[in-house]
Amino acid sequence: MRILLLGDYSNVHWTLAQGLRACGHEATVVSDGDGWKNYPRDIDLKRRSLRPADTLRYYLRCWHTLSRLRGYDVVQLINPVFLDLRAQRIPPFYRLLRKHNRHLFLGAFGMDHYWVKTCLDGTTFRYSDFNIGPHLRTDEPWNKDFIRDWLDGEKTQLNIDIANDADGIISGLYEYDRCYRPAFPDKTTFIPFPIDCSQLPAHRPYTPGSPIRFFAGVQKSRSAYKGTDIMLRALRRVQEKHPHRCEIVQVENVPFEQYKQLMADSDVILDQLYSYTPAMNALQAMAQGLIVVGGGEPENYSILGEQELRPIVNVQPDEEDCFRQMEDLVLHPERIPILSRQSVEYIKRHHDHIRVARRYLDAWQKAMD
Questions:
Q1: pLDDT of residue 118
Q2: Which domains, and CATH codes, for the chain?
């Protein structure tokens, strides 16, 4: 097959492309590198700035690039907004791709209309980026922006139109599958995110008796949205109480390659507080043998069919629960090697990029038959 992967979040499409190539298929990734993270891609579509002149140049470059991307068996979009343009500017590019390629699939991988809408019902998820039980987190400034854009804004109709028109929808996490499946039961397929273990730095194994090193990667603009602020407060309390048993490595907005190396020298990583599941950042850490403190709810293991391994330290969206769970790790360091081995095995079973690529190929072929 000839496969075009358009856009990227957290290195999902580039990692998938590596798996597809290993299976003997042609895969092309077009993206902006996901901003400052600068993930690899085959064709760069990075927008220089929001200034009018740069906007015009970017628009023309997108049109020139996508006009030449023809004859692919599969085009997969990372998101309905797959270019760094306003939603109202995207439909012509979508129609261009649709006209000149065989089949088109939409990724359910992140922020979009169906995610916002489902979270805001206050009942589907016990907690999420937008709710804790029936209490809706609608007053935070970051959520106001997402709700304005995706619930009833210009991105809403774009998402609905593409989801209805696409040949299939691929969900990458339990939560995203839960958002799309009720509306599109016949064309939603769950496939776990891919991880290429060969591209990750060697992990520094934990030395018994040494302090446990906790890693926190912070995006300043998203810290409160992802719950990193709460988790860090809890972790600092643990460190104050057990100063000789706990170390904190905190990094902010560093490029992906540097980030990977810093992470490899740690034992535990703090992930998203409001998630049921580990996403790409946490999965990459697990592949290296780090232990994830974050989302590991029963639904996560159930959708994977995992009956044995429980490597994730699951925390509730509550500072006290985060404190208790992380303090328990610090007080029982004998858990570290066990959970580390389980983390690596978990990735091998469910997220190996070649196995995941084969599942994509099967799903695409099924939708095309």
A1: 97
A2: 2-194+352-368 (3.40.50.2000), 198-350 (3.40.50.2000)
